């Protein structure tokens, strides 16, 4: 009996030790809720999030939007897929994913790193980046620099740099950034405050307002809006779910 009791005890200990990894692999169940006014889209409340008063999309409903914002938001409602994902290419068998980040958000570097790693390892996703400077002027300055870098094909490298460090104020820092990434400094300085950058920020703000994104990080994975942090394993599970049942609301082509 003693030997049997010992074996039972050892088995119980082994099960207790093995259980957490199993649970981690299975993960929590997803609890989706529909997004009001956006048929077919749904929301998944996730982890920690940063918010602020850096843009009127954060305080939607508390004060009126500008005429330009009102117009852009109407365009988002009319064609949310185009607004969020830029384009849906039927020739690519990849799931559209949109990522909303702020360079001063404490949670954004981790999510950004996960998404970049998935891109680099060949995950079947097509990523659109939305800079959402919700945490004030420093966030907006960094967002403008990243968008301007995109005009010279350097968005992602600059995005990664800014996620890891601080962009000091002033043109000298912008010139150094442009030089580090082989960009034309004069063009870069013009683009930072240019109309194309302004338009991109306004459009991302309109998307955020329509989808109810009140902070960062957030991302749209196919039809599912994820607000807050999400682990790599959870994101991979969500990608698999979205690929299993394609979203008819965003037709390819």
UniProtKB/TrEMBL annotation:
PROSITE patterns per record: THIOREDOXIN_2 (PS51352)
Domain of life: Bacteria
Domain Thioredoxin as annotated: residue spans: 48-244
Gene3D superfamilies: Glutaredoxin
GO molecular function, one term: oxidoreductase activity
Any one Pfam family match given in the protein's UniProt record, by short name: DSBA
Protein's UniProt name: DSBA-like thioredoxin domain-containing protein
InterPro entries tied to this protein: DSBA-like_thioredoxin_dom, Thioredoxin-like_sf, Thioredoxin_domain
């Amino acid at each position: 009996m003693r030997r049997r009791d010992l074996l039972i005890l050892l088995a119980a200990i082994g099960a207790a030790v093995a259980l957490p990894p199993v649970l981690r692999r299975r993960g929590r169940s997803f609890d989706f809720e529909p997004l009001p006014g956006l048929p077919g889209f749904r929301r998944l409340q996730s982890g920690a999030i940063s918010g602020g008063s850096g843009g009127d999309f954060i305080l939607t409903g508390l004060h009126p939007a500008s005429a330009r914002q009102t117009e852009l938001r109407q365009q988002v409602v009319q064609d949310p897929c185009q607004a969020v994902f830029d384009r849906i290419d039927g020739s690519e068998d990849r799931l559209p994913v949109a990522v909303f980040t702020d360079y001063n958000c404490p949670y954004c570097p981790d999510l950004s790193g996960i998404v970049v790693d998935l891109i680099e390892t060949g995950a079947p996703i097509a990523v659109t980046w939305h800079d959402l400077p919700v945490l004030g002027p420093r966030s907006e300055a960094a967002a403008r620099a990243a968008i301007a870098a995109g005009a010279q094909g350097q968005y992602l490298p600059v995005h990664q740099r800014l996620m890891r460090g601080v962009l000091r104020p002033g043109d000298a820092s912008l010139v150094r950034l442009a030089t580090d990434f082989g960009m034309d400094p004069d063009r870069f300085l013009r683009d930072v405050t240019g109309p194309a950058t302004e338009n991109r920020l306004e459009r991302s703000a309109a998307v955020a307002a329509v989808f109810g994104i009140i902070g960062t990080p957030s991302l749209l994975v196919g039809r599912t809006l994820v607000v807050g942090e999400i682990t790599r394993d959870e994101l991979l599970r969500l990608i698999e779910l979205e690929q299993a049942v394609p979203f008819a609301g965003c037709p390819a082509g």
